[in-house]
Amino acid sequence: MGEARGPAEQNFRVRARAWLEANATRRSDEDGRQARRWDLASARVFQGKLHDAGFAGVAWPTAYGGQGLTPADQRAFDEEAREFDLPGEFFGIGMGMCGPTLLDLGTDEQKLRYIRPLLRGEEVWCQLFSEPGAGSDVASLQTRAVKEGDVWVVSGQKVWTSVARFADLGALIARTDPDVPKHDGITMFVVDMHAPGVTVRPLRDMTGGATFNEVFFDGVRVPAENVIGEVNAGWAASVRMLIHERVSIGGTTRSRRGAAFATLTEVARSRGVDRDPVVRQRLAELYVRERVVHLFGTRLAQEARLGRSPGSRGSVGKLAGAELARFSAGVAAELLGSDAIAWDGTDREAARWAAALLSAPAGGIAGGSNEIQRNIIGERVLGLPKEPQVDRDVPFRELRVGTRSPSPRAGGS
Amino acid sequence: MGAENLVLTEEQEELRDSLRRFLADRSPMSRVRQTIETTEGFDRALWDRMAADLSLQGMAVPDTCGGAGFGQVEMSIVMEELGRALVPSPFLASAVLATNALLALDDADAIRELLPSIAAGRTIATLAVAEDGGGWEAAKIATTAVLDGDGWRLQGTKTPVVDGIAADLVVVVAHAGGELGFFTVDGDAPGLSRTRLAGLDLTRQLASLEFSGTPARRLVCEDATGALNQVLDVASVALAAEQLGGLQRCLEMSVDYAKARAQFGRPIGSFQAVKHLCADMHVAMELARSAVRYAAWAADAAPGELPVAAGLARAFCSEAFFKVAADTIQVHGGIGFTWEHDAHLYYRRAKSSELLLGGPVKVRERLAERLGV
């Protein structure tokens, strides 16, 4: 992009590119789809080499295993790395969310214990936030942690947990005081995913795949020193982690320029409908929608480089991206016609777009639903008033949560 | 990855701020309301101040031709502010369409003689392309020019012509023998009859111009079709910027009203049904702004990308502005449907701008073609 960069950053970028050329594989597809599937063992080996070479935790403190460089250097690395096939799926949550939150709020002991193995890929992290009864309203979570001497005993269920099957550690939020309003009785913990009482079950989603898991905690004992931040200050810690999440999603999923337009134009051509005026209208419309979302991402990134924080405007990209995914899948189905509903097993395009059609709804739900994004834009960007809130000043146990009825007396939930 | 620059410089931000103050001061909506009731339909005093105080008409005209020598990025800032304030003025006709037509041709004499006066706001000019039933495209032009002695004479009807009544000078695209050519005609030339058209948009004057043996000057031009495309591309960027400005103002009106208006005991903006409508307007604004920035950058710095970028900006901003203008009336409810409220003025402008220079279907078809579909 146009603006000037410092010589140190330029140097670092050149080194990063050279290392990637020598040690990583370039993505083969034009539109950047992943070429290879990593297994955990080879992913760990790669991540260790990446850390040895000085490219893991670029802007993190050296005292804990980072490289001590600047966020601009990290962005430079990310930009270079986008062209290559890195094993991000196992380490993304640790690097993008759990690690940064530990650096913000963890004790010195915690940082010394956890950050280096995280950066080296020796320990995989997952994030244990959502529950069956706590989705958009995650502060209404019901997983409980009860103090018994020096340990907290955790019971409850988490859901939509990516990489939990491979995770060694998790950042968990649990209810530590049900007698205060919901935001005031939550604590964040580091949990050992191999501890007795932790059960991970893959959750099959509507595409037929299973990228998420359900995680059950049945009397899991968590040492007191594993609290991240303060007891009952877990909501603030969660908000921090969600901010890191938004930044990390924003940084990695910026769509390739014109990817859906280009492939669907090919589809139209190969099926001989590219001269059809209606098809041409749809393709042009797809180009426009896809390009403006991409341009918005570029504009935010350029503003960020000038020191203007994107803040809640990240929600604009998230929302527009989710709607674009639905629109693209719709155009694809229109072009493919009956091939979108029944196809020859060798027809990769048809299979790919059927998968896109099936995964499109996820974009409007995962990482904050479209409705939540619109609330964020309405309230934090435009300054519109919130809905009257009925859950702010009431003890958690008296609230309706999910499908649970309130329990005014102590003891039951 | 392109090298597009989508962020304004501090100087450009200052230009926007000073322009916004100038228009708030000189052309508040009360003034706009008065102006559209006049026969002339635009504010000549304001037009003169725009030239004298801010040199707006010559913003993107090279300094060698009497302009300020800035580019399309600055021009897009001007258009956005004019659109935001819904200023009734022949700016699009004169400073954008006619000016860029002269700049796209190869007629140094005409540029030297005509452009300085247009850039200074002394001459109001326009460009006449569209014809009855046709669009803004070369293939639909039926007006002819014939050589009569040593002068050219025009025959045909151009409609709609933006600010065709106010224009002192009309640049006309017509067939001369087998090829397309550009001509200039004086606004008061014999054999030119001008009719003011009833219009959807009360803040932009459209006219029908009938040429019956009207004497005209032929401008030197090697590739008239190419020049016409170039003019329409640059004008599309400017018009998209104007649409962005109107959209921005509608968003602001809606948010302000949603905060102020209470029903069922609370501000209507606290209801998600209304809040989400406003949030969608904001998304449209951010995306439209990104498209306009890119297209203006392309016009200045990457002419090869302009044909696609201009179509992109026009297609997106046309649809976005009209949707936001319609939703603005929805957020305002009954009051938004009254003559007194400004919402309908923006709604009218939005639909009118969408269909000017060729409507959305044509814009998308042209875009598909340029993208190689």
- Mean pLDDT of chain A, to the nearest integer, reads 90
Sequence of strands across the biggest β-sheet of chain A: 3-6-7-10
Helix content of chain A: 40-55%
Oligomer: heterodimer
Rg on CA atoms of chain B, Å: 21 Å
End-to-end separation of chain A: 55 Å
Overall average pLDDT of chain B = 96
Q: Calculate Rg of chain A over CA atoms.
A: 23 Å
The number of helices of chain A is 11
Number of helices of chain B: 11
Structural class of the secondary elements of chain B?
Answer: alpha+beta
Number of strands of chain B: 9
Q: Tell me the series of helices and strands of chain B, N- to C-terminal.
A: HHHHHHEEEEEEEHEEHHHH
The CA-CA distance between the termini of chain B, in Å, is: 21 Å
Strand content of chain B: 15-25%
β-strand percent of chain A reads 5-15%
Helix content of chain B: 40-55%
SS-based structural class of chain A? Answer: alpha+beta
List how many beta strands of chain A DSSP finds.
10
Biggest beta-sheet profile of chain A: 4 strands, mixed
Largest sheet, strands/sense/barrel of chain B? 7 strands, mixed
How would you describe what is shown here?
Chain A is globular, with a radius of gyration of 23 Å. Chain A is α+β, with helices and mostly antiparallel strands and 413 residues long. A 4-stranded mixed sheet of chain A has the order 3-6-7-10. A 4-stranded antiparallel sheet of chain A has the order 4-5-9-8, with no helix packed on it. In chain A, strands 1-2 form a two-stranded antiparallel sheet. In chain A, strand 8 and strand 9 form a beta hairpin. In chain A, helix 4 crosses helix 6 and helix 7 packs antiparallel against helix 8. Chain B is an alpha+beta fold and 373 residues long. In chain B, the strands form 2 sheets. In chain B, strands 1, 2, 3, 4, 5, 6 and 7 form a 7-stranded mixed sheet that branches. A two-stranded antiparallel ribbon of chain B has the order 8-9. In chain B, a hairpin with a 2-residue loop joins strand 4 and strand 5. Chain B is globular, with a radius of gyration of 21 Å. In chain B, 55% of the residues are buried. The interface between A and B is large, with 46 and 43 residues.
